[in-house]
Amino acid sequence: MRTRQSLIDVVRGALIGIVEIVPGVSGGTVALIVGLYETLIESAGHVVRGVVKLLADLPRGRGAAGGLQELRSARWSVLVPVGIGMVTAVVLGARAIAPLLEEHPVPTRAFFAGLIIVSLVVPIRMVGGRWSVVEVGTAGVAAVVAFLLTSLPPSRVDDPSLWIVVGAAAVAICALVLPGLSGSFLLLAMGLYAPTLDAVNDRDLAYLGAFMVGAILGLGSFVEVLRYLLRTHWRLTLAAMTGVMVGALRALWPWQDDDGALLGASGSLAPVVVAFLVGAALVGALLLLERVLTTSEVEPAG
């Protein structure tokens, strides 16, 4: 049973990792879809607090008990297989997704647009009940901000310094835990998307090490803020996430020029419609699978 669940978690992690490579698609959104979001946020919080306590207590002679207790509270049985799936998907997907976006950008964006639109049901369902005026307004403001962010023109920084890599990674990694906002798109806007893909493909350990440091710093700073918001303002935070997901759809409009400006529909619509429907169907299947798995976990034995 545990082995089967671990394999499922590897696949879940792979789904999160593969979409993190695609500008405009959020790994946090997929984490919501596959039922991992709350577990990852809570476990990440325990890991961050554990590391901070170890770094603060050990030099002062207070021992490691507090930090180790926090680390033990994280669900490593989930984090490890999810991490394996994510890393594997990023390494393999970097070689497959980038050429696909370059050679077939219109149907590829349509596919991911279908994926995101159907996945909106997840945060809406998590909010639950009738939305208040404040929640609708919050979602609207978040949508506008996300739309403006995804309207930023892409750039390219050749041979970035490692300090720039650290800073960019710290910002981009926040999108991993914020549904709707794409870390790859933020890297694209900062000019580091192509260099990061090149570093993954070329196994540039210095670049990847700097990126990892930035990711740890950014995640450590942001995850506690997000956990606080979810704990104290659950509905409002999820409403804002929904708005971000809606606004970020701007990045997935199929017809765009090289600078990301929106264009009118052109060419044959059939491949675009098919790709959109396939993406929507995939999310529907994932939501159904997640419900089946959740139901089987709570059913009493025998």
UniProtKB/TrEMBL annotation:
<feature type="transmembrane region" description="Helical">
    <location>
        <begin position="162"/>
        <end position="193"/>
    </location>
</feature>
<dbReference type="InterPro" id="IPR007163">
    <property type="entry name" value="VCA0040-like"/>
</dbReference>
<protein>
    <recommendedName>
        <fullName>DUF368 domain-containing protein</fullName>
    </recommendedName>
</protein>
<feature type="transmembrane region" description="Helical">
    <location>
        <begin position="268"/>
        <end position="289"/>
    </location>
</feature>
<feature type="transmembrane region" description="Helical">
    <location>
        <begin position="205"/>
        <end position="226"/>
    </location>
</feature>
<dbReference type="Pfam" id="PF04018">
    <property type="entry name" value="VCA0040-like"/>
</dbReference>
<feature type="transmembrane region" description="Helical">
    <location>
        <begin position="110"/>
        <end position="127"/>
    </location>
</feature>
<keyword id="KW-0472">Membrane</keyword>
<feature type="transmembrane region" description="Helical">
    <location>
        <begin position="133"/>
        <end position="150"/>
    </location>
</feature>
<keyword id="KW-0812">Transmembrane</keyword>
<feature type="transmembrane region" description="Helical">
    <location>
        <begin position="12"/>
        <end position="37"/>
    </location>
</feature>
<feature type="transmembrane region" description="Helical">
    <location>
        <begin position="238"/>
        <end position="256"/>
    </location>
</feature>
<feature type="transmembrane region" description="Helical">
    <location>
        <begin position="78"/>
        <end position="98"/>
    </location>
</feature>
<keyword id="KW-1133">Transmembrane helix</keyword>
